[in-house]
Amino acid sequence: MQLREQKNVEKKNLSYLLAEQIGQRILSGEYTAGSILPGEMELTKLFDVSRTAVREAIKILIAKGMLLSRPRVGTHIMPISHWNFLDQDLLRWWITPNNIDEIMTHFQQLRLIIEPQACFHAAINASHNQKQTMSSLIKEMHLLTKQFDPKKWIETDQQLHHTIYQSCGNPFIASFANLFQPVYQHYFEKIISDKAFHLKAHSAIVDAIIHGNSQRALEECKRLLITRE
């Protein structure tokens, strides 16, 4: 990498880290929606960064719907209704030990809307290779029950969810597999302790998908999600 390119990367990383810190202050309410963000000079002193880094960080947050810059007025913190909660960065910044229960409630409600449909369409559209992958992941989960490893279980469970979403044949639904990865990670870490979690239910969903039974796949997924609530 050329020196100039390296410097550009370093600037981008610094701007991102600054955007994260400002974003977290907005999400926590320290910087309140509807108010004016501290000025450029104040932010440079507060975070000990350059004006360029501040400007780039503000651009990042504007793109996420959190800020709106107005000439001669300042940078407004937008109402929460404008924030893009489908943004992976914003999701990561949002989750804290203090609000994780509230976020997981919202997350489960959304899963109940989307995930059964993903299973329904996966039963119709999954390829032979995708079905083989699901079957292999279920076998791996069964093996993990004999010598349980929470970290490996979470990794395998996430791979299974990802495969189902990618198998559904609908690019809008499939995009949620990657979009909500940060929330899935926190969710599974919260519910998994020292034992396999609903392996029978996971197996039933995959069995329905493999056999092309879309309605049963939908119902088994709904049953699993309702049981978890």
- What string gives the helices and strands in order? HHHEEHHHHHHHH
Stated plainly, the CATH topology of the largest domain is called Four Helix Bundle (Hemerythrin (Met), subunit A)
Q: Write down how many β-strands occur, each being a DSSP E stretch of 2 or more residues.
A: 2
Regarding quaternary structure, what we see is single chain
Question: Strand fraction band?
Answer: under 5%
* Architecture per CATH nomenclature, i.e. the level-2 architecture of the largest domain: Up-down Bundle
Share of residues in helices: over 70%
Write out the CATH superfamily name of the largest domain: GntR ligand-binding domain-like
Protein name: Pyruvate dehydrogenase complex repressor
Keywords: DNA-binding, Pyruvate, Transcription, Transcription regulation
Pfam family, one: GntR
Domain HTH gntR-type: 12-80
